[in-house]
C-alpha cells in the first residue's frame, strides 16, 4: 500500500524526493547479537553469535568467540553447538534421521559468554505442506520485463493462529533484500487474520520480485517456516524498520529481542531465537 | 461543588436590580450589498460608551437607560453607521452597513473592529479574514485556510504536506475543527496539501488557542471555528477560479418566492491532475485514479422576526487507486440551526448536526471474484446543542447551554476472499455519549476591566452494544495481555468519566492603546486519533475513550500584553506566554500495530505532555502594506513510561523557533504583490546507534530506547506572488484577476523526515534517507473571477 502512495505522490508532480545523506550518530558499547533460527530439517543447524557494529559501518561484524551454546528440549535432550572454525558460527552436526525441532515441543537456548548467561525460549508450531507451485506467463505487466510470476498454494490448518515466514530461492539463491522479507498469519497479512483457508493472494504471490520475473529454466524453491507469534511480531517490526519510506514513514524504534541476559556483566544482547518446522516445494519454470 | 455554588453566587450578584428604567435595543448587523450577517461588528452607544458586538449570527442586544442615544456601528473596511434613536420602549432595529467606496470591487467577508485586539477580552485568538487568506502567495496558487493557520504564532506542524496542525504542543486530534459547528475529523485533501474548506464559501475563520470559552469543549488544545457564508439575499452572483490543480465554482443568491427572506450558496471544487496527466501515463498507471472533490452548500430562511433557520452541509472525498486497488476517504457533515429570539434579551440558537468520516481501502470484491480484500472504517456522530445568550444589562453577557454528542464508531471491517472463500474481520463497534452543560458570564467591571468566568461540566459514557476488553498489566512498554472480552448489551454503561472544566479570563486596559489579558482553561477530550507514523495518514483510526483509554485533560494558563501602534492604519501587536500540561497523551509500544488489530488497546501507553512558550504577533490590516509577522519560541514535550528511559522527550512537532512573515503590498490599484517567509527549527527525529545483523538482514538499534534524540535540518522557504486586477468600472458584471505565484522561490530541499533503513538493493548496507516533499520551485498561474 505504501508503494501505491509513493507512485501516486510522484504522479502528482509534487516532486517529493529521497536523498541518501551522511549523518553523524553516536556510538554505543557493542551488543552481543544472537542469530538463532533452527528448524527440523535434517541438515546441519547453525547459531551465529556476533557483535553489533556502529550503524554506518559496512565491514563484517566481529564474531563473538568462545561461547558455550546449547539448545535444550522440554524433554531434557541437549544439543550442543560448536564453533569449530572460530568464525562465530556455532553448528550442531546432525546424525542421520535426527532433528532438533519436533512439532509441538518447546526449546530453550542457553549461552554462556564472557561470564554471562543468556537465555531464550521458543516453540515449534505446525507448518502445512505446500500443495503446489504454479507459474503464469506475463507480458507487458506493470512495465516489467516479460517472464513468469509464481504462486504457491497451501491450506492453513483451522483452529488456531498459525504464523509463518516464507523464504524464496531462485537457482539456490535466497531472495533476501529488505522487501523480500515475508511473514504471514493464517496465510493472510493481518493479525488476527481469518482462519483455516487457502493462503490469500498477496501471500501466495509474495515469492516474486518486482521487475525480476522468473524465466524459463529457473529453479524456484519456496520454504514455509512455522514461527511463533513473537517471531511474527519480530519480523513485522524488523520489516517495517528496514523498509521505511515516504510521507508516512514510521519513526525509527527498536525491534524486539527474545534473548534475556540472566546473569553477569557481559555485553547487552539483541537478536532472536526461533524453532521452526519447515516444509518446502521446488519446481523448474517450464 | 463549592466552586460551582460560588460561581453561581457571583453570577446572581452581578444582576442585582437597577433602579433606573432601562430598555433594550436589539437586532442584526448586515452587509447591505448581499444581506450577509456580520459577525463581530461593534455596536457602541456614543453618549455613554457602552457597547457590545454582534454574535456569530450577527445578532446584538444592549440594554441602556431610556432617552435619546446615538448607536454607532463600526466594522473594519465598512462605512461607519450612526443612528439616533429615542428610546422609550424596547426597540428592534437592524443595521445595514456598506463597504467603503474604495473597496467596492472586493467582497468584504470578515474582519474586525480596529481596537478589538486591545479591547476585547479574548486572547490567544486570531480571527482571520478570508481576504487576507487569499492574498497570501499559495502553493499552486490555491489559498488555503489550514496552511494559513500554520503561519500563526503557537501553531506548528510535523512538516510540509502533513495533515492537520499542532497548537501549543497539542496533537492534531486536539483541535476542534468546526465547519458551521459540525466537527470535521480530517481537515485535509491530498494528504495535507489542501484543506477541506473552500475559501469561496467561507465567511470567517477563528482560531482559539487559549482562554477557550465554555461553549467549546471536547478537544484539549484549540478550536478552529469556520463559518460559512449564508448566500446573497439581493441577487444571483457567482465566483470561482481556475488553477493548476483544481477549479472552483460558487453560486449564491436569493431563493425564489421567498421575498428575499431566504438565500442559498453552493460551492464545489474538483481536482483534475488525473485528467490532465492521462495522456502521459502508461501501463497500469493509465487506469490510476487520484482526485478529490468537495461540495459545500447552505441555505437560510428568515421565517419571521424571531426565527431563522440555516441548513448547511459539506461533502468531500479523496480517491486514490488503480482499477485493481484503491482507497478513498471523506467527510460529510450536515448542520441544522435554528435562531430563536425568546425576547429582546435572550437569543437561542439550537444546532443539530451529523458528521461522518470514513475511509475504504482494498480491491473490489465483486460477485464471483475469487480473490479480494476490502476494508472500511468510519466514525459518525450526532449532536444537539441548544445555547442561550442572555444580555441582562450592558455589563453582562451570559451564555449557557447543553451539548450532547452520540458517537457511533466502526473502527474497521475487513472482508477477504481467497480462492472464492470469503471471510471477514470486524473490530468491535464502539458507542458513547458525551454530554456537557455550561454557563459563562462576561462581565464588565468599570471601564477598564472585563472578566469572564464559566464552567463546563462534561460527562462521558462508553456504552453498549459492543465489546469491552480487559487487559492484564504487564511490564510497562510491553503489549498488555488480553484477559477477557465482555459482550455488553445495548445501552449498558461500560465506563463513565466526568470532568469539571473551569474557564476564566481577565482583561485590564492599561490605557486606550494597550491592555493586559490572562486566562486559564481546562479541557477534557474523549476521542483520540491513533497514529504512530511521522505524519498522520488518512487511514489513522479514531478511537473513543473506553475502560482502557482515559480522557485527555489539558490545563493551560496564558497571559499577554496587547498593544495597538499608530492611529491611521493600526498595527496590532501582542506578546503572549503560555504553559500547558496534558494527561493521558496516547503513545504506542515499540512498533505497535494499530491497523485492523482488535486488541490495539493493549498496545497503547498513556503519557504526559507539557508545553510552554512565548509568542510574538504583529498584524496590519489596512493600508497599502498589509500582513502579519509571528515568532514563537516554544517547547512541546512528552513523558511516557518505558520510552526514552522515562525522561521527557520532544514531541514530533516540537519546533523551538518558528518565524513567519506574510506581507501583501498594493503596488498600484491593479497590481498587488505578496510574499511569505517561513523559518522553523528542524523537527525532532530518532537516530540509531548500532547495526544488528540477523538472518542476513541489518537493522538499527537505538541506545536506551531513546526517542527524538536528534533534529533534522531547519525548514525555510520564501514564496512570492503577483495579482493583476482589472480596471475598476461602474456596473462591471464580470471581475477577473490573474494570480501568478512562485512557491519555494530558491528551491530549497527542506527535509520532511530522516529515516534509516537498509539499501533496498543491498541488505548489507545501511543508510540515512532524507525525505523531501517539495524539492523544487513550484510556479503557478490561476485565474479567479466573480460575476
Explain this structure.
The complex is a heterodimer of chains A (286) and B (787). Helices cover 10% and strands 39% of the residues of chain A. Chain A is globular and about 60 Å long. In chain A, the strands form four sheets. In chain A, strands 6-5-8-9-16 form a five-stranded antiparallel β-sheet, with no helix packed on it. In chain A, strands 12, 13, 14, 15 and 18 form a five-stranded antiparallel β-sheet that branches. In chain A, strands 7-3-2-17 form a four-stranded mixed β-sheet, with no helix packed on it. Chain A has helices at residues 2-11, 201-204, 229-242, and strands spanning 17-21, 32-39, 45-51, 53-54, 68-73, 78-81, 89-92, 106-113, 116-123, 130-138, 147-154, 163-170, 173-174, 182-185, 219-227, 260-263, 269-276, 278-284. Chain A is mainly beta. Chain B has 787 residues and is mainly beta. Chain B has two domains: 20-104, Carboxypeptidase-like, regulatory domain (Immunoglobulin-like), CATH 2.60.40; 125-786, TonB-dependent receptor, beta-barrel domain (Maltoporin, Chain A), CATH 2.40.170. In chain B, the strands form eleven sheets. Chain B has a 22-stranded antiparallel barrel. A five-stranded mixed β-sheet of chain B has the order 9-16-17-12-13. In chain B, strands 1, 4, 7 and 8 form a four-stranded mixed β-sheet that branches. In chain B, a hairpin with an 8-residue loop joins strand 30 and strand 31. The interface between A and B is large, with 84 and 93 residues. Strand 1 (17-21) of chain A pairs antiparallel with strand 50 (762-772) of chain B, so a sheet runs across the interface.
